[in-house]
Amino acid sequence: MKNQYYHDKIDERNIDWQENKNPLVRLFYKLKYKIAIKYANLRCDDLILDFGCGTNWLKKKMLPGYDVIGYDIDPKLTEIKDYTKLKPDKIFVIDVLEHVEKEEIRKIIKNFKKMNPNFILIAIIPTETWLWRKARKILGLSETVEDHITKLSEILQILNEELTQIKKINFLTMSYITKFESTVCSKWK
Question: Where are the beta strands (DSSP E) in the chain?
């Protein structure tokens, strides 16, 4: 990922929202993760890539016992240097793609397709609606995030061009949770 601002600021900005002091924030994150996991229809033998894993909360707290490999641009957080060497069945991108330039998103999706032409992608993307901005303000944060460089509509356009959307939900109008299949996988349905 080429978002230099995000990479430069990662140490100071890598907030573990799932462990936030505010119980409403913790509940919000736990519920949206649960929806994403339900969408994935996980099997015991699935290889799961948590792309942009951050503090590995998905693996540690939500999917213990599953084969989850976390990849992050921060070398202190990643479990694998080159995610393209994997052949994951399920790929989670949770609150990640908004930090990535459009052309880089296309490149990432193409890499996913090369890794395994029959994968499921679960994405969570902030909506950045009025309510989302006001919720951030209540938490004492700025209403906008400086390193959110790609909008939800742009991300969804790219994903819909490259993959087939299967499910979606606008969770509390603050997070868009969606399930995509690779086109190869979709053609066999």
Answer: 47-51, 67-71, 90-94, 120-126, 163-171, 175-182
Q: Are 133 and 144 spatial neighbours (Cβ–Cβ below 8 Å)?
A: yes
The pairing of strands 175-182 and 120-126 is antiparallel
pLDDT at 10 over 70: no
**pTM beyond 0.85:** yes
124: Cα within 13 Å, side-chain hemisphere:
26
Run of H or E including 12:
helix 4-13
Q: Which residues contact 188 (CB under 8 A, 6 or more apart)?
A: none
Residue 65 token pair: 């016992």
Q: Which two tokens stand for residue 170?
A: 């606008």
Q: What is the mean pLDDT of residues 32-51?
A: 95
Nearest to 38 by CA among 124, 135, 109: 124
Tell me the two tokens of residue 64: 């213990």
pLDDT at 35 over 90: yes
The region of weakest confidence among 59-63, 72-76, 112-116 is 59-63
Structure tokens at 98: 């908004």
Domains of the chain: 4-187 (3.40.50.150)
From residue 52, how far is each of 24, 47, 58, 189 by CA, in Å? 24, 16, 11, 30
Instruction: Tell me how far apart the alpha carbons of residues 91 and 65 are, in angstroms, rounded to a whole number.
Output: 17
Q: What is the pLDDT of residue 100?
A: 97
